[in-house]
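Hi! If you just cloned this repository, the fastest way to understand the data is to look at a raw example. We've pasted two of them here, unedited. The first protein comes first, obviously.
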Amino acid sequence: MSSGKHSQVTRQQLDGLCSKKKLSDDTLLEIAALAGLLAREGETHAPAEALRARARAVIGGIPDDVLDSLADEVEGADEMESEEGALDRLSAFDEVSAAFAWVGAGARVAPFAERIADGVRAFPETWAPFAAQASELLERAAPCAGDPASRVWRAVEVAPLQVAQIAANVELPKAVEAALGAGGVSPGTTDTHGRRVR
């Protein structure tokens, strides 16, 4: 789906939800997620501030245990799972991150995003197949300032380089290490399957 078509579909979904007379907490969270995703694409089409305030109140009541469980779900993905299943888990967290960022609560998601990014760097084989999607997203609709999901997508983007590094048992170029934000993966820290030990 093209960028313009994707934005149009998201906008239509958002308009449909905002037009409802009664908005449940789940609907308000979905509104925040869709608005956050549209904001990444530079869209100025956004719900009224009153709806943002209501969504902020709902999100403020979400306990950190929920974010912790979402991070666990992503970290639980491994190379034995279908690619679709692993990507679904990551996308679910990404939407939550967009929602929190849209209401100004991105900082609450930050430690969980960093944990997921660390997991991606530790087990790049799981995430390397999604590097192209990560590059496309970061170019077309990069997470906005205050949205920590960018850390995760950057780690996914360079996962193939880490896989190659592990296979060759060599150090990554300094520029790639800087992009990883964690100094890459040092040779000699892999398990019997060639994966980095946590």
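Ok, and the second one:
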Amino acid sequence: MTHTKIFLNVVEDCINYPGTRVLFACIDYEKDIQKYKHLIDGLEEAGTGKLNRMYRAFYFNNKSTIEFKEMKKEFPRELLASEYGAIIVDDDITYSGEVIEKLLSKLRPSNPDFNQYIIII
């Protein structure tokens, strides 16, 4: 599955399941945001939501959110209290089993009909 296809699937989930929080764990925020810029621009033009560069998140009008967080090899402290319906992890870096376990512990559906998932791309 391509990065674009995965991003579009995440967007579809965010639209179909209001209040869904998705984490895109990446190495370089600016590089990743450029990868999806044409898709994000299309969402903004359609009035679906808005990218907030300061908070590094796309906020949908239905309260769903896609958050872009930089992760090197360690687990970011800022995620300790966070919960997500889906997590997408950039495979440009190898994470320890401990980091993957911590990521898995962050999976919590905000909608009972939503099946949470983690994808490593």
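That's it. A detail worth noticing about the second one: Residues 3-120 form a domain with the Rossmann fold fold (CATH 3.40.50.300).
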